[in-house]
Each structure stands twice: as structure tokens, then as C-alpha cells.
Design a protein that fits this description.
- The structure holds 2 protein chains of 2 kinds.
- By secondary structure, chain A is of the alpha+beta class.
- Chain A has a single domain, classed as 2-Layer Sandwich (Alpha-Beta Plaits), CATH 3.30.70.
- Helices cover about 25% and strands about 30% of the residues of chain A.
- Chain A has 2 helices and 5 strands.
- In chain A, strands 2-3-1-4-5 form a 5-stranded antiparallel sheet, with helices on one face.
- The longest helix of chain A has 13 residues.
- Chain A starts with a strand and ends with a strand.
- Chain B is of the alpha/beta class.
- In chain B, α4 links the parallel β3 and β4.
- Chain B has 2 domains: about 110 residues, Aspartate Aminotransferase, domain 1 (Alpha-Beta Complex); about 250 residues, Aspartate Aminotransferase, domain 2 (3-Layer(aba) Sandwich).
- The chains are: A alpha+beta, B alpha/beta.
- Chains A and B meet through α1 and β2 of A and α2 of B.
């Protein structure tokens, strides 16, 4: 079982992304980025289920809402950046 | 009290504004800093306010920077575009919020357009003055003293054609006239939250069509490991904890404006302005600065027959709030020829009613010991 995180540099961008994805029926949770994903310090992330990630990335790109990266985290805490 | 000083700050606010400020103080912590409920609630409300500004001023939410007032916003814009000794073109109706930051930078200032209520004169003067060597053009949308509506859309087009950055001071127009980052071809538009947008004092907006230089440096809740300010909006220009109660109040003020519609607000204030003009003419005042709807908002200035400050003092003691003197805009008074006398300014709001006007008539009609030349 994996969790996916889309990271954002600022709360404003993350909120814009959250609003867009929720309107499109994708369940996401806006939260602080886990420290292991915040290489440059504080940030926010959208956490979502694996089945929604590709669609979410496509929608954000279409709306030109910039995000940092897409990360897959397994139940043991192993992190892997996902290229979509 | 009859409050006629809305050009300084709108004193009467919608109930929703007061309520939003109170609720924010109960529910909101620091926005963009934590992940717990009160912090996220603060972030949500701050975004709502940006989105309301997005709707009112044709920009994106990220382009909306919160400031403490229009002066703060203008300082950010000016410090971004003007270096020591640069040449700058401004109108003959600018506030000290423009003049003083430019003077502090030892800018070479060209004042374009001195003829009150003549958009043609203003536009021609800007057309003559704007050259590619100019660092930026700054123009108020509406004079805070005379309510003169300057042709900012046309000036913006000139600036775009000639590749010169353009800053609009919308202090007197936001909430009363259409204001658009896109339509004005502006690089920055500065405005207060506490005047025509009916927000609390301590709020302002800077709409950014380019990346501003920070005026304040500090924490933004983003990229915290970097010693430099973020290079993206709005964080770059929003160091330090935001005024969340103020922003929540501003959100409700803008919502009120959006529901009323700027056109309706403009016409209400203009109708009162026309009644005030007629009243002053009936009372025999000779210097009343009045013009057509196309070039003036609801702000009306006149030169009283007594010292203007004493006139305002007398009215204030009897429950009528007006502003006298130079209104922090000596350039505007120089342009209109009232720099020696100053004026008394009457500026109604959407909450001013016709029924309040007879009291002003009665007090201005009273004989008083300070009348000049008697």
C-alpha cells in the first residue's frame, strides 16, 4: 500500500491545487510536507491515493499550477520520486 | 455622526466585516505555517480573500500580495522599479505615498498633466513625457482631493507601446470603478483595503504583473532552508505573519462590494456629490471643484470662506466628519491652485444618505466668527 504526495513550494499553490482536484472529484488532503520531502525547508503537499495520481498531475499541468515533485511512500516509510 | 471622510478611510463598515474580524481572532492561527486546524483555517480564509480579489481585479490569486495599506504597496512597487536617480513620470495629482518614496530615491521626477478634470491634457502630457529612458510611470486612478478620474487605461497603453513599466495607485477607485490589472496594462496596482473595499485599517493589496523586490525580508513558511527570499508570488513580498483578522474582514468587504456592484456604488456616491455641489452653490461658495460623471467620482472639494481647518473643526464639533488641508497631496493642490488655502473635502460612501445632508447645509449656513474677508 502506498501514499502519494505532490509537493508545493507555497501554501497558495497547494491550495489552488487542492481546490482544482477536489472540484474534479479527486480526494486529496492538504497538509504540511513531511520533512523528508522538504529538501528546502517548509512546504505543503497534497496526499492522495495511488489510483488518482496520474489524473491529478495531468489536471494540475493543464491548469498551469506548478508543483515540486510526486513521491511514493510505502508503509515502511521508503520514499521514491515518481516521474509522471 | 455624518461621516464624510471616506476618501481617508471608510469608517462605517458592513456588519459582515466586523463579524469576520472577530471570528478570525477566535478561529485562526498563522496561515501557511502549520498543519493543524486553526493554521489551515487561516490559510483557507487568506486564499478566499485572494480569490475574491482575483474576481474583482482580473488577476490570478497568486498575483495578489497583502500589504498593510496602499502606501506600503506603492513602496514595494517603487522600490522594485526605481533606482537612485532614475527618471520617473507621475501625474500632477499624486499623493505623498508616491512623491515621498521617489524623493527619497532622489528620482528625477517629471510631473505630467496639471489641468484638473481634463483627461485630454493629462493624456497629452503623458504622451510627451514617456520615453524609453523612463524607469517607470506612476499614475493615480482617481485624485484623493478632487475625485478626478485620470485616463489610466490609455496611459497604460502608451507605457506598453513604449516598453515602460506602469504603476497605478487605485486608492480612491478600488470598489468604486472597474480596476483591472489586465485592462490597465499595469505592472503593479496598489490599493488600500480600508477605503472603498470596506475592509479594516491595516489592510492593503498589491496586484503584481511582475515579480516584486521584497521590501521586508523574513519568514514566509516556504523554502525555509534558503537564506534568500522565495522567487515566486505571493511569498516573495509577504514576509512575516499576515494580518489574518484584517484579511478576513477585507474578504467580507470585497464580497460586499461585489454584491453591490461598483457601478451602483459609484452612482450612489455621485448622486450625493451632485446634491452637495448644489448645496454649496446655493450657499454662495465660489470655489467648488465639480465636473461630469465621466471625470469625477463622489469626492468633492471646496474652498470655504473661513480657514479650511477651522471649518472642518467646527463641523467636526457638531458631528460632521470632513477632511481639510492638503490631504497629503500637495501636487494636486498645486495643480488646482489651492496650495495656499487648502480645501475642505467631502467624501460620502455607500452608507451616506440624502437625509443627512440638511445638517451640513445648516452648519455651513451659520455665521461664524472666523469667516475670512468679513
Amino acid at each position: 500500500m502506498y501514499d502519494y504526495y505532490l509537493t508545493f513550494k507555497s501554501i497558495t499553490g497547494a491550495q489552488q491545487g487542492e481546490g482544482l482536484l477536489l472540484r474534479q472529484g479527486i480526494r486529496v488532503r492538504l497538509q504540511r510536507s513531511p520533512a523528508f520531502l522538504s529538501k528546502n525547508g517548509c512546504g505543503y503537499a497534497l496526499k492522495m491515493r495511488s489510483g488518482d495520481v496520474s489524473k491529478a498531475v495531468g489536471l494540475l499541468r493543464l491548469a498551469r499550477i506548478s508543483f515540486g515533485g510526486v513521491y511514493r511512500v510505502d508503509s515502511s516509510g521508503n520514499v521514491e520520486e515518481t516521474l509522471l | 455622526m455624518m461621516y464624510l471622510d471616506n476618501a481617508a478611510t471608510s469608517f462605517l463598515k458592513p456588519n459582515s466585516v466586523r463579524k469576520a474580524v472577530n471570528v478570525a481572532m477566535i478561529q485562526c492561527a498563522s496561515p501557511g505555517r502549520g498543519g493543524y486546524l486553526p493554521a489551515m483555517e487561516a490559510s483557507r480564509k487568506v486564499l478566499q480573500c485572494r480569490q475574491m480579489a482575483e474576481k474583482l481585479f482580473s488577476c490570478s490569486a497568486e498575483q495578489v500580495v497583502f500589504t498593510s495599506n496602499a502606501t506600503h504597496a506603492l513602496n514595494v512597487a517603487i522600490r522594485t522599479l526605481v533606482r537612485e536617480g532614475d527618471s520617473v513620470v507621475i501625474s500632477g495629482f499624486e499623493h505623498n505615498a508616491v512623491l515621498r518614496p521617489l524623493t527619497a530615491l532622489h528620482a528625477n521626477i517629471t510631473v505630467a498633466g496639471r489641468k484638473l478634470f481634463s483627461q485630454e491634457d493629462t493624456l497629452n502630457a503623458f504622451a510627451d513625457a514617456i520615453t524609453p529612458q523612463i524607469a517607470c510611470v506612476i499614475c493615480t486612478h482617481v485624485s484623493n482631493v478632487f475625485g478626478y478620474i485620470l485616463p489610466v487605461k490609455e496611459i497604460g497603453k502608451l507605457c506598453r507601446e513604449r516598453g515602460v513599466p506602469f504603476v497605478v495607485d487605485a486608492s480612491q477607485s478600488a470598489g468604486i470603478l472597474p480596476v483591472s490589472l489586465e485592462d490597465f496594462s499595469a505592472d503593479f496596482i496598489a490599493m488600500p483595503g480600508h477605503k472603498g473595499l470596506y475592509g479594516p485599517q491595516g489592510t492593503g493589496l498589491l496586484l503584481c504583473n511582475r515579480l516584486p523586490n521584497p521590501l521586508l525580508y523574513g519568514g514566509t513558511g516556504s523554502l525555509s532552508a534558503n537564506a534568500e527570499m522565495p522567487d515566486f508570488l505571493p511569498d516573495r513580498a509577504e514576509a512575516g505573519t499576515a494580518n489574518v483578522p484584517g484579511i478576513c474582514g477585507l474578504m467580507k468587504g470585497m464580497e460586499f462590494v461585489s454584491q453591490m456592484g461598483t457601478e451602483r456604488i459609484f452612482h450612489h456616491e455621485r448622486n450625493l456629490c451632485k446634491k452637495l455641489y448644489k448645496m454649496l452653490c446655493d450657499l454662495g461658495y465660489e470655489q467648488v471643484f465639480f465636473a461630469d460623471d465621466s471625470v469625477q467620482t463622489g469626492v468633492l472639494s471646496f474652498v470655504p470662506r473661513e480657514d479650511c481647518e477651522l471649518c472642518a473643526q467646527r463641523l467636526g464639533e457638531r458631528g460632521i466628519a470632513v477632511r481639510a488641508g492638503l490631504h497629503c497631496a500637495p501636487l494636486a493642490h498645486e495643480s488646482a491652485g489651492t496650495i495656499e488655502t487648502g480645501t475642505v473635502r467631502l467624501s460620502p460612501s455607500v452608507f451616506t444618505t440624502t437625509e443627512q445632508l440638511p445638517l451640513l447645509y445648516r452648519l455651513l449656513h451659520e455665521k461664524n466668527p472666523f469667516e475670512l474677508g468679513k
